[in-house]
Amino acid sequence: MKKIKIEIVNTIDTSNIYAQLSHAHSGGICVFIGTVREFTANEEVIALEFETYKTMALKEMQKIADEAVKKWSLNSVVITHAVGAKKVEEPVVIVGASSAHRPECFEACRYLIDTLKEQVPIWKKEMFKNKEVWVSAHP
Amino acid sequence: MNVLFFGIARDIVGTSELLISDLVNKPTVNDLKEYLMARYSEFSKLTSFAVAVNNEYAKDNVPLDQNDEIAIIPPVSGG
């Protein structure tokens, strides 16, 4: 039985990711955690603010997990994204997969985060000292 | 029809939900995009923007119905 968990939460708890992904048929787990970086192009970031179109975002996240399970032999998949204001060093997204051998979960993990960034309706605003910028909005 | 706005799109129109009643007859996604760009010049300055119909990305030729859940999706930036 595959374990698939898709969530949008206010705060990401990184301590339970092992329990979410561990699986009797897996010999490896790969996890990526996206976090708030202090500087963007030498400018100090105070916080990142995330918002989402939740019903659609969950649907798109589910599609990504389903596609990953089709592409690779995975036993578990987690995609969790946070919303709201997040300060420097706080986690904002956690994705991971487990598989019998490590190549599959490494490749799947990269696919999960790369595709999430391209397709899932979640928006990030960088809060600087004197301005706020929606990331990627303008060319 | 009722249209939802997120992220910078909400900032541009100044509200998260807008009732649009003066679209062309039998409108498509493209008609809605053109309507918005004609009224809010800031939409043309975005990298791109998509329209979602009932929680799915919709191509320009997709027809819009009064009962659809329609949302404006500016460039996403999760992660």
Provide the CATH superfamily of chain B.
Beta-grasp domain
Name of the CATH homologous superfamily of chain A: Molybdopterin biosynthesis MoaE subunit
Share in β-strands of chain B: 15-25%
**N-to-C series of helices and strands of chain B:** EHEHHEEE
Structural class of chain B: alpha+beta
Rg of chain A, Å, rounded: 16 Å
Ends apart, CA distance between termini of chain B: 32 Å
- The assigned structural class of chain A equals alpha+beta
Shape of chain B: globular
What is the domain tally of chain B?
1
Described by the principal axes of the CA atoms, the overall outline of chain A is: elongated
| CATH class group of chain A | Alpha Beta
Largest sheet of chain B: 5 strands, mixed
Rg of chain B, rounded, reads 12 Å
Give structural attributes.
heterodimer, A: 139 residues, alpha+beta, Aldehyde Oxidoreductase, domain 3, 4-stranded mixed sheet, B: 79 residues, Ubiquitin-like (UB roll), 5-stranded mixed sheet, globular
